[in-house]
Write a structure and sequence with these properties.
Rossmann fold; Hypothetical Protein, Haloacid Dehalogenase-like Hydrolase, Chain: A, domain 2; six-stranded mixed beta sheet
């Protein structure tokens, strides 16, 4: 019996317009009303995730930055796992050698050193997940979303590294060449054993402390609620969701998930643009998960 539901955002809970549909929102609110706990587990920072939930009236705990931070329903930080400044310098050196754009999420918000590249990265995500939208329109949509995401801009990331009051929680780097460029970098960084390297889309890799993983954070959340992981449902689409799919008794991949991610899920649901999250939640509420397409 499902007692706790955790959903990824991009590519899972969010539709092709990068918002939570009314259908998904109603299903989540129905689950909460019935006594089932709901939380979001995302690679996004709190200031990127919270406004999207508020738009549809959802209040819940949030695992952010792939597990680097966890917030309770009142918006208070209850877990925080960052990267050392020395580690960050080494990561930046490798990223700069490849001439890649990256962003940093810190204890004081999300930072970019290039606004045009920031918009381009978000536009690429919208464009590739919504083929009916032109790239020009994707840029317009990306710029509009950024207005509510509270992004900070610096001319040089050294400003953050030299500020002792700032803790670096996650680095995300992008390449339009995708895995061809990013996989070798991920393998090199993974070799240290101190980092968790995942991806939320084909054009990025996300770099966290090894202990900052969605699955680890979800397991701790379930334990704090007195819920066995057998009674947890996790929904996701990409490789930064795999750790929580492995933890959850009911692991669900949306139809648009990467094949390598689907391999870790017990069930498949409809795509993110077809309200796959709502479909799974409603089946869980009726204790009919056997009707969900099993792998």
């Amino acid at each position: 019996m499902v007692k706790l539901i955790a959903s990824d955002m991009d590519g899972t809970l969010l539709n092709e317009k990068m918002v939570i549909s009314e259908t998904n929102a109603k299903a989540i609110l129905a689950a909460q009303k019935s006594g089932v706990h709901f939380m979001v587990a995302t690679g996004r920072g709190y200031t990127e995730a919270k406004p999207l939930l508020e738009e549809v009236g959802i209040s819940c705990p949030i695992i952010t930055l792939n597990g680097a931070q966890v917030y309770n329903e009142d918006g208070e930080i209850i877990e925080n796992i960052g990267l050392s400044k020395e580690t960050v310098r080494n990561i930046l050196k490798k990223i700069n050698e490849l001439d890649l754009y990256c962003e940093m999420t810190t204890s004081k918000g999300i930072y970019s050193d290039n606004k045009a590249k920031r918009i381009e990265a978000v536009a690429s995500l919208i464009y590739k997940t919504n083929p009916d939208t032109s790239f020009k329109m994707s840029v317009v949509l990306a710029a509009a979303r950024l207005e509510i995401m509270n992004i900070n801009y610096v001319s040089d990331y050294n400003e953050l590294l030299e500020d002792e009051s700032v803790e670096i929680l996650k680095i995300i780097t992008f390449s339009e060449d995708g895995p061809k460029v990013l996989e070798p970098l991920a393998q090199e960084l993974s070799g240290t054993g101190d980092l968790a390297i995942t991806a939320s889309f084909v054009n990025n890799i996300e770099i966290n402390h090894a202990k900052a993983q969605k699955g680890l954070a979800l397991a701790r959340a379930a334990e704090s609620l007195g819920i066995h992981t057998d009674d947890v449902m996790a929904l996701g689409d990409n490789f930064n969701d795999v750790s929580m799919l492995k933890v959850a008794g009911y692991s669900v991949a949306v139809a648009n998930a990467e094949d390598g991610v689907k391999a870790h899920a017990k069930y498949l649901t409809s795509t993110n643009s077809e309200n796959g999250v709502a479909e799974s939640i409603l089946l869980a509420l009726n204790d009919d998960m056997d009707k969900q397409l099993a792998r």
